[in-house]
C-alpha cells in the first residue's frame, strides 16, 4: 500500500491535470495565496492547465503572489534559458498575476547575492509565508537546486550545481560550457516552512530519486527525503516515476 499522501497516475498528462486542480483549489479558497513555483519539463503542462483556467475565467491569479524556487547564476533575467524567461513563457504571459518573483540571476558579487537572498526570504515572510509550494525532483534527489549535502535548515542562497543537474540542463544551452555551474535557490528550510507542499515527478529517469526520497533514509544526501518531515506534503507521480517503490 502506498502512503495516503501519495498518488500515482497513468501518465504525465493526468498527473499534471491533477496537480493543476490542486493549485486551483488552493487559489479559489484563498485568492491571495502565496505560491512557490518550479521550472522544468514536468510543470509545463501544469502551467498550461492553469493558464487555460484563467483564460476561461474559472480561476483568477490577480491577487496571487508567487516566488520561484530558483534561478541560474550568473544569468540575465532576459536571457532565453533563464528561469525568469521560462516563467514568462509558460505562465506569466498567460495569467493575470501581478506579483511574481524569481531570484535575480544578474551577475554581481557574492556579498550582493547574499543580501538579495536575505531580501527574498524577508519578502516571503512579509506576505505571510508560502501557502503552497510545488516542487519537482532532480535525478540527484534535489528540490529547487538544493543538491545532495543541503541541510534541512538551509535558506535561500548561492549554490553549486551537481554534475547530473548540469548534464540535464544541457538541452537548454546546447554547449556544456554554457551551462552555469551555480544557481540561487530557496533553501530546504524555506520550503519546509510552507503550509503545504506538492512534490511531482514524471518518467522513469526520476524513479530512483523518487524511491530514495519516499522509502530511503531521511538524509541530506537526498534533500527531497526531508519532505517526509512535513505534515502536509502530497506526492504526485506517474506510473513510470513510481515503478521502483516497493508498494508498486
Ligand atoms: P524536470 O526537473 O521537471 O525538468 O524533470 C525537475 C527538477 O530537476 O527539479
Topology:
Blueprint: E1 6-9, H1 12-29, E2 34-37, H2 44-55, E3 65-68, E4 70-73, H3 83-92, E5 99-101, H4 110-126, E6 132-135, E7 157-160, H5 163-173, E8 182-185, H6 188-192, E9 196-201, H7 207-215, E10 233-238, H8 239-242
The protein binds 2-phosphoglycolic acid (PGA).
2-phosphoglycolic acid binds next to loops.
Describe the structure.
With 248 residues, the protein is an alpha/beta fold. It is built from eight helices and ten strands. Helices cover 35% and strands 17% of the residues. The strands form two sheets. Strands 1-10-9-6-2-3-5 form a seven-stranded parallel beta sheet. A three-stranded antiparallel beta sheet has the order 4-8-7, with helices on one face. The longest helix is centred in the N-terminal third of the chain and has 18 residues, at 12-29. The protein starts with 5 loop residues before the first strand and ends in a 6-residue tail after the last helix. Bound molecules: 2-phosphoglycolic acid (PGA). 2-phosphoglycolic acid (PGA) binds at residues 40-42, 136-138.
In short:
The protein is an alpha/beta fold and 248 residues long. Helices cover 35% and strands 17% of the residues.
Summary tags:
binds 2-phosphoglycolic acid; 10 strands; alpha/beta; 248 residues; three-stranded antiparallel β-sheet; seven-stranded parallel β-sheet; 8 helices
Biggest β-sheet strands, sense, barrel: 7 strands, parallel
Order of helices and strands: EHEHEEHEHEEHEHEHEH
Mean pLDDT figure: 97
Distance between the termini: 8 Å
Task: Name the beta content range.
Answer: 15-25%
- Helical content, roughly? 25-40%
C-alpha-based Rg, rounded: 17 Å
